[in-house]
Specification:
This protein has 218 residues and is mostly beta strands. It has one domain (14-193). It is built from no helices and 16 strands. It has strands spanning 14-15, 18-19, 45-53, 56-64, 71-72, 75-80, 86-93, 98-104, 113-119, 126-129, 135-146, 152-162, 176-177, 180-190, 204-207, 212-215. The protein has a six-stranded antiparallel sheet, with no helix packed on it. A six-stranded mixed sheet has the order 5-6-7-9-10-13, with no helix packed on it. A two-stranded antiparallel ribbon has the order 1-2. A hairpin with a 2-residue loop joins β3 and β4. It is globular and about 60 Å long. The termini are far apart.
Length: 218
């Protein structure tokens, strides 16, 4: 696959994975998804991606009206498994509302997000995950906002690049490691992971098992 490890970025700032942009992250040399989930208003869980996986061009999206009602190890979960032959999944470490930007590379010690794509068609099921050893670089940036119901909406873009893998490489997602490069957009409504402590829950308390605000009993 052709691609460049130095993707185009906008803005400045820092994330826990290293130097990170504060604006959208994309590689302009790679196709953008035909659907921009950041602009969706009716769907509470929308993801889109475009680029290549295992030498095959992709441009897929999924969208549902339901928000995300799960929290895994202090991370917001986003993803879907109904992308017409592809699975896309990710996690982002919970945080207070505001802009965020993160960059991870193969040897990044503490990864603030994870991203994985996999083809569900064919015998080999080509896959690429940020936990795989052929990862070059992955970037994710966006904004987290709290709504009137104290749920968190996260919205933004991502870009990831994986080089050609070594022979007999098995992806973290279970398929065969594949070279890939994608741009993507996301917008999800997170019902858990909406608070860090009680200061995030005026008139209620932060229930620590699900990190969600729970109204106090009168």
């Amino acid at each position: 696959m052709g691609g460049s490890a130095a993707s185009a970025t906008v803005g400045g700032g820092s994330g826990s994975g290293g130097a990170a942009p504060s604006g959208p992250v994309v590689n302009p040399a790679v196709a953008m998804p035909s659907r921009d989930c950041r602009l969706e208003s009716s769907d509470n869980n929308c993801l889109s991606m475009a680029g290549t996986l295992g030498g095959v061009s992709i441009d897929q999206f999924c969208a549902t009206a339901s928000g995300v009602s799960s929290l895994v190890l202090g991370a917001w979960v986003f993803g879907c498994d109904n992308m017409k032959g592809y699975d896309l999944s990710g996690r982002l470490k919970t945080r207070r509302p505001g802009p965020f930007s993160e960059v991870i590379e193969l040897h990044t010690a503490t990864k603030a997000f994870e991203l994985g794509i996999a083809s569900t068609d064919g015998a080999t099921k080509p896959s690429a995950d940020t936990e795989d050893r052929h990862l070059v670089r992955a970037e994710l940036a966006g904004t987290a906002t709290r709504n009137a119901d104290t749920d968190i909406e996260i919205s933004g873009t991502f870009h990831a690049l994986w080089m050609a893998p070594e022979p007999n490489c098995t992806s973290y997602d279970g398929g065969v490691c594949a070279a890939a490069e994608i741009n993507g957009t996301f917008r999800t409504l997170e019902r858990f992971g909406t608070c860090i402590d009680n200061t995030d829950c005026p008139g209620s308390t932060c229930e620590m098992a699900g990190h969600s605000c729970v109204k106090l009993q009168p």
